[in-house]
Design goal:
386 residues, Immunoglobulin-like, Synaptotagmin-15/17_C2A, Synaptotagmin-15-like, calcium-dependent phospholipid binding
Length: 386
């Protein structure tokens, strides 16, 4: 096979390569800047060991190699401003923009109504039983005044009496903290604990205003010394109303009309009136689906020990046809358990249609139906008997 055929064939390969790269772009994109710009392209090079091989076109459009003298190189070939490297030469270019990793948009994409976003990292030292928490930064704070001087309190729930506090960052809506904190906690209790971050603004009279909070349960995290997790969460407004007589529970509802699926996310409870203050006392939530006041199915959260303010973040799903939503209801019961003793009801709430509920419970149910596939989150007061 002649060298002229090899040169022609290589030019054909080069042309086909460029055509395939161009075809991957939309018509409105500038090919001159994206594909053909030498400063943004990477040469595609045939190594010297393959120079002596020709490619034979077959009828089925496959290609096979034909052995030739391995030391024979073409007299000339398509070249670019890239010089040949040890006898290799350029046959095309690869656009590096096609292989960029996804851009991190956590500092640019903020949903409507966002009141701030907090970044932190956590890791756990097994031998010393230490939880290491690094407070990294907060962005897009929404203070009551034009300027903001902020600090963060960090709790390891269920202990709400002690906390660690950051330094105050003055006159910025985007404070950078980069501070490290240590909590002593045994490996047995670690997954039952929850991190709570409270972000405050200090005004000129040195009064503290709560801007938002982040609640982060540790039970679903793989915490090891070799696994440092960097996490961000949007700030949430705390429920500033005082707890109800029997406490409150926060949960989300969602209905998928296509799948006929009713979803309940049990988030947390607060201000529970435990019958006995003891680390051995456990609290869990029982979620029951009813239809015409007839029991259909129930599911339970994990039992958390020794806290009147448990954080669950557990999701449950029930099958419910859309035609049943006018007669179905959900009952959420908060129960206290203690070894060897009877389970006690701490409080209960029912959400559902007009047949069973009124007020906030009815509003929550109707909002869930009006916003299919969306999670609708609300607090509800617990009643001791219903």
């Amino acid at each position: 096979m002649s060298r002229e055929f090899l040169h022609c064939d290589i030019r054909t390969v080069n042309l086909l390569l460029l055509q395939s790269l161009v075809s991957t772009f939309k018509p409105e994109e500038s090919i001159g800047t994206v594909v053909l710009s030498r400063s943004r392209s990477v040469p595609f090079i045939i190594p010297p060991t393959l120079h002596g091989r020709d490619w034979i076109h077959l009828t089925n459009e496959e290609q096979v190699q034909e052995d030739r003298d391995p030391y024979m190189t073409p007299q000339s070939g398509p070249r670019s401003s890239f010089h040949s490297l040890a006898g290799a030469y350029v046959v095309g270019a690869i656009n590096p923009d096609l292989y960029k990793s996804p851009e991190d948009k956590s500092e640019t994409d903020f949903p409507d109504g966002n009141i701030g976003r907090l970044w932190f990292s956590i890791e756990y030292e097994q031998e010393s039983e230490r939880l290491l928490v690094s407070l990294i930064k907060v962005r897009k704070l929404q203070p009551p005044a034009d300027s903001c001087s902020s600090f963060v309190k960090i709790y390891l729930l269920p202990d709400e009496r002690s906390y660690l506090q950051s330094k105050t960052k003055r006159k910025t809506l985007n404070p950078q903290f980069d501070e490290n904190f240590v909590f002593q906690v045994s490996s047995k209790m670690l997954l039952q604990r929850t991190l709570k971050f409270l972000v405050y603004h200090v005004d000129k009279q040195k009064k503290h205003h709560l801007l938002g909070q982040v609640i982060f349960p540790l039970k679903n995290e793989a915490l090891t010394e070799d696994n440092k997790l960097v996490i961000w969460r949007d700030l949430e407004k705390d429920n500033l109303e005082p707890p109800s007589e029997h406490g409150d529970i926060q949960f989300s509802l969602s209905y998928n009309d296509y799948l006929g699926r009713l979803t309940v996310v049990v988030l947390r409870a607060r201000g529970l009136k435990l019958q006995e203050e003891s680390p051995a006392v456990g609290v869990y939530v029982k979620v029951s689906l009813m239809n015409h006041n007839k029991f259909i199915k129930s599911k339970k959260t994990a039992t958390l020990l020794g806290t009147p303010n448990p954080v669950y973040n557990e999701t449950f799903s029930f099958k419910a046809d859309q035609t049943e939503l006018d007669t179905a209801s959900l009952s959420l019961s908060v129960l206290q358990s203690n070894k060897g003793e009877k389970t006690l009801l701490l409080g209960r709430v029912v959400v559902g249609p007009f047949m069973y509920t009124r007020g906030k419970e009815l509003e929550h149910w109707n909002e869930m139906i009006s916003k299919p596939k969306e999670l609708v989150k609300r607090w509800h007061a617990l009643c001791h008997s219903m």
